[in-house]
Each structure stands twice: as structure tokens, then as C-alpha cells.
Amino acid sequence: MTNETELGPTGDTSGSFGFRPVEPRERQGLVNEVFATVAERYDLMNDLMSGGLHRLWKDDLIVALNPPRSAEPFRVLDLAGGTGDVAMRIVRAGGPGTTAVICDISPEMLEVGRRKVETASLTDRISLVEGNAEALPFADRTFDAATIAFGIRNVTHIDHALAEMFRVLKPGGRLLVLEFSHVDVPVLDRLYDLFSFEAIPLLGQLAAGASEPYRYLVESIRRFPKQEVFADMIRAAGFERVSYRNLTGGVAAIHSGWRI
Ligand SMILES: C[S@@+](CC[C@H](N)C(=O)[O-])C[C@H]1O[C@@H](n2cnc3c(N)ncnc32)[C@H](O)[C@@H]1O
Asked: 124 pLDDT exceeds 60?
């Protein structure tokens, strides 16, 4: 099953929804259905499926971002920010000048995020905006940094989203992408495949009452370009000093690039 996931050099995933071929214009609608279905259980499922590892990976993302502790304004776009986990971590790590805008295409995910931001009394530092990563509703050079965690894989035209993040970053601004990636550690890769294709859809069925969204999750991870290919896509969008770091043997990776 997994050997059909080899990607072309461009990393163009616009014609596939997981392993299923689709018309690019239909893909976003299918993705939106997934997140509308899972929104209320999203946070719980993240913990169950990753055994809590997503928390450590997000901690790594925040350490890489290193928001200033001062009152100096530092505006972060958390794209595909969903239920708000990353944005809340960013403003808590930063000083009083650090603010975040969560932008996501799913009203259902944003609604869960809105409730969490209110409960945490962070409405003065986090705002939520419905929008498509491929056509961001922000002016050029608005943000000091842009993060996207487990989101870029879901976007139909990844190159458009990267170009948009470049456009809305100020010169000197940084892009950080946390995404599932590709394991190349012998044995770990086999175990990871077994867990992904057998356990995750089953967990979805048991804990969230639906296995299909979780099958999409697993398949879309395998469809996502490998680390080096994705780094080249970031460079092609205009970013410089592009680098990446594998997490947990490549199960996830953080890619970084700067708008100089
Ligand atoms: C796996 S969730 C990640 C949520 C959050 N960043 C986190 O790490 O917990 C993926 C998110 O991407 C959003 N998304 C998918 N396509 C998008 C698009 N074209 N523009 C903006 N958000 C999108 C989904 O609605 C969903 O909230």
C-alpha cells in the first residue's frame, strides 16, 4: 500500500485526496468535510494518535520561533491554526507584545478555537480569521513570523500557500512549517507504517466514530513531499536560508525559511 506513495520531484499533491485521485477543484471541499467532521474531537484525537508527541513537536516549534519576551510588537500568523493550540503556545511563550492571528478555512475548527481562546482569557492577544491559505485576507508585509502546523499538507496548491505566506511576511520575517514527514530509520519506518495504516483508522472509529477522516490523514502524510523536496518548494517561493530538522526520526519535521 505504501509503495504507491512515491512523489514526483515537484511535490504537487493537488490531484490527490490521500491515495485517491481527484480533480484539484474538488479537493478543498473534501478536506473541509474532514475537518468539519473531526473538529469537536480534534484535540483529543491528536493526543490519542500521537501518544501526546504532537505536544513535544509543538514545543519544538515554539522554541524555534523564540518569540521576544519584551513588550515589543511581534505579530504572528498561525495559518491553518484550527483549534488554536499553536497560537496559544506562541502568545504564552512571548512577551506582552506578542500577538497571533489564527487563520483557517474551517468554521468548525475555528469555533472550537474561539471557545478555547475565550476560556483562556487570551482574546486580547489572539484573533481568529476565516480564510484560505491560497488567498490570504491580509495586506502585504503584515507579520513578523508565520507558522503552519500540520496544515500545509491539506492545502491543494502548496506553492500558492507558500507564496502567500511570503507576501504577508515583513522583510526579516520567518516562516516555520511543522508537518508530518518521512521516516528513513530502518525498523522505525515499518513500525510507523503498521501503526499508521492499522491503528490510526481504528482509533478514529473507536474514539471519534469515523475511520475515513483518519485514513485520509495517514494517506495524505505519505503523499506529502519528502523533506528535501519540500525545502526546495520553500526556496522556490522566495524564502532564503531554508533548513529543516527532523523530529522523532522524521515522523515530523520543522522547515524554516526567511524572507530577507
Ligand atoms: C490537522 S489541522 C491542524 C490544526 C492546528 N494547526 C494544529 O496543529 O493543531 C489542519 C487544519 O488546516 C486547515 N486547512 C485546510 N485547508 C486549508 C486552507 N486551504 N486554508 C486554511 N486552512 C486550511 C483545516 O481546516 C484544519 O484546521
From this structure: yes
Rounded to the nearest angstrom, the distance between the alpha carbon of 39 and the centre of ligand 1 is 10
156 CA to centre of ligand 1 in angstroms: 12
Q: pTM, whole model, 2 decimals?
A: 0.95
Distance CA 86, CA 176 (A): 12
Joined together, the cell numbers standing for residue 179 give 508537518
Q: Which CATH number fits domain 23-258: 3.20.20.450, 3.40.50.150, 3.20.20.30, 3.40.50.970?
A: 3.40.50.150
Which three-class secondary structure state does DSSP give residue 181? coil
Of 143, 142, 151, nearest to 113 by C-alpha is 151
The 10s digit of each residue's pLDDT in 128-156 is: 999 999 999 999 999 999 999 999 999 99
